[in-house]
Amino acid sequence: MPPPSPGRAAFLGLGAIGRPMAAHLAKVFDLAVWNRTRERAEQFAARVTARVAGSPREAVLGAEVVLTCLPTSAEVETLLGGPDGILAGLGSGALFLDCTSGDPAGAQRLAARLAEADIAYADCPVSGGTNGAEAGTLTVMVGADPGTFARARPVLACFGKRIEHLGAVGSGSALKAVNNALLAANILTFAEGFAGLARAGVPVRRALEVLNTSSGRSFVTEGLVPDRVLTGDYPNTFRLALLEKDVRIALSFLDAQGIPAPVLHRVGALLAEARKELGEEADYLEAIRLQERRTGIEIRG
Ligand code: NDP
């Protein structure tokens, strides 16, 4: 008997995190990929077994599952419509997994629009960075009805380790936005505190090691600062513009819940300022380098 043929899947959005996620899916699915800049999709298909599609419609033709990973919900909404859009190619009964760090209201609009075509939708933003995506160990925060979550789980397991159902559509996006707002706060507060320690002559690496066994530690101080900041390496893995977008989503979510958030509003304003100064392509940890430039103190060790 021949082995069972793999299901067909489509992945749209081969950005920094989309590429390694799609590469895992290609090991399991018969995968079609689409990217706005086609050249990036061609480069991807040169090293991973996947078909490059010329349009979103062509990518999703015959697919049982479609995954998107775009900057915001707005870009996903735009790709749905029109003669070359997703809805023109995707059949009823398909599963639509949106791994964009989108906004809860956008996710709900997408789910409603897809439901009219009998397509199940889940918002499933991810956390763990490009390293986590490469290792297949992402955390996936899912908002969906229980039946859709059950269908989504084995697909998400291709690149996810912890796959958590948080509730109805929109709840995955809400948690992701709050997560990244806390991440942003940790980045900015690290930069302030450690610029002060460095100026006072406290040995920075030892101070960090002590902090990381103390109560002020965070993913930033444990997972990011040692290899990216203290070394002065600052690789590009996640655009600061996207983090600023996440904080804005968190703030409108908190505003909609009637929750005062003066600290996170300040974090949002500082990040917006940094985005303006550093531009659209800067990495998120450049916010720390900005503090270094402003104070004339490098945090190295
Ligand atoms: P990138 O900026 O690296 O890539 C963005 C992707 O979206 C590219 O494929 C880009 O295409 C495409 N795109 C941008 N605008 C449009 C548009 N108008 N129409 C169609 N396609 C478009 O982003 P990331 O891959 O880093 O992030 C993607 C999502 O994942 C974001 O929501 C981000 O917040 C989230 N995320 C990112 C993480 C990371 O570590 N990088 C971690 C966790 C979540 P093109 O190649 O043509 O520019």
Largest sheet entry: 6 strands, parallel
Bound molecules: NADPH dihydro-nicotinamide-adenine-dinucleotide phosphate
Strand order of the largest sheet: 3-2-1-4-5-6
Note the total helix count. 13
What's the total number of strands?
Answer: 9
- Name given to the CATH homologous superfamily of the largest domain: NAD(P)-binding Rossmann-like Domain
Query: What is the top-level CATH class of the largest domain?
Result: Alpha Beta
Order of helices and strands: EHEHEHEHEHEEHEHEHHHHHH
Form type: globular
Percentage of β-strand residues: 5-15%
Return the domain count.
Answer: 2
- Look at the helices and sheets and give the structural class: alpha/beta
Spatial gap, N to C terminus: 61 Å
Mean pLDDT: 97
Helix content: 40-55%
Q: Could you tell me the radius of gyration in angstroms?
A: 20 Å
CATH topology label of the largest domain: Rossmann fold
The unreliable regions are none
CATH architecture of the largest domain: 3-Layer(aba) Sandwich
Q: Could you characterize the architecture of this molecule?
A:
The structure is a single chain. By secondary structure, this protein is of the alpha/beta class. It folds into two domains: 5-168, Rossmann fold (3-Layer(aba) Sandwich), CATH 3.40.50; 174-295, N-(1-d-carboxylethyl)-l-norvaline Dehydrogenase, domain 2 (Orthogonal Bundle), CATH 1.10.1040. It is built from 13 helices and nine strands. Strands 3-2-1-4-5-6 form a six-stranded parallel sheet, sandwiched between helices. A three-stranded mixed sheet has the order 7-8-9. It is globular. It starts with 7 loop residues before the first strand and ends in a 6-residue tail after the last helix.
